[in-house]
TrEMBL record:
Fe cation binds at residues 58, 62, 125. Involved in the synthesis of autoinducer 2 (AI-2) which is secreted by bacteria and is used to communicate both the cell density and the metabolic potential of the environment. The regulation of gene expression in response to changes in cell density is called quorum sensing. Catalyzes the transformation of S-ribosylhomocysteine (RHC) to homocysteine (HC) and 4,5-dihydroxy-2,3-pentadione (DPD). This is S-ribosylhomocysteine lyase. It comes from Vreelandella andesensis. The lineage of its organism: Bacteria, Pseudomonadati, Pseudomonadota, Gammaproteobacteria, Oceanospirillales. Homodimer. Gene3D superfamilies: S-ribosylhomocysteinase (LuxS). Binds 1 Fe cation per subunit. It catalyses: S-(5-deoxy-D-ribos-5-yl)-L-homocysteine = (S)-4,5-dihydroxypentane-2,3-dione + L-homocysteine.
């Protein structure tokens, strides 16, 4: 690992020391009026050992983006990591870690019962052919099975 501190928070995280799956508070940004953005690292796959397939990841992104907002109005963004091992979840003015865990759990339970991927068409998505509801549900199922491990980030 480099000694130099980098601009991006996750570039300073030792990815060989973490133990997926986990939910980790990655960053807090405060605006000049006191509003705070909390950014969470939802790691699903063990870095450099496994990764999500693109269609499954993409469908899980659509499903979580749509369904998480049924449980809270604090979600700013849910975005997949380019390494395909997890998602970043940004919330505004919500610093309750345990409740974030609950929101993720409720959202994944919604994913399990979904009968279609929302917005997987060429009008509403940039790669509508790359989706897998079945794949997303397998990811959600596996993640929920390890729910008790989510709060433990390091091995
Ligand atoms: Zn899409």
């Amino acid at each position: 690992m480099t000694e130099k501190k980098m601009n991006v928070e996750s570039f300073n995280l030792d990815h060989t020391k973490v133990k997926a799956p986990y939910v980790r508070l990655a960053d807090i940004k405060e605006g000049q009026h006191g509003d705070r953005i909390h950014k969470y690292d939802l790691r699903i796959c063990q870095p450099n050992k496994e990764h999500m397939d693109m269609p499954a990841l993409h469908s899980l992104e659509h499903l979580m983006a749509e369904m998480s907002r049924n449980h809270t109005d604090k979600v700013v963004d849910i975005s997949p990591m380019g390494c395909q091992t997890g998602f970043y979840i940004a919330l505004i003015n919500h610093d309750d870690y345990d409740d974030v865990i609950n929101i993720i759990e409720q959202t994944l339970n919604d994913v399990l019962t979904a009968t279609e991927v929302p917005a997987c068409n060429e009008l509403q998505c940039g790669w509508a052919a790359s989706h897998s509801l079945e794949g997303a549900q397998k990811l959600a199922k596996d993640l929920l099975a390890k729910r008790s491990e989510w709060t433990e980030v390091f091995a």
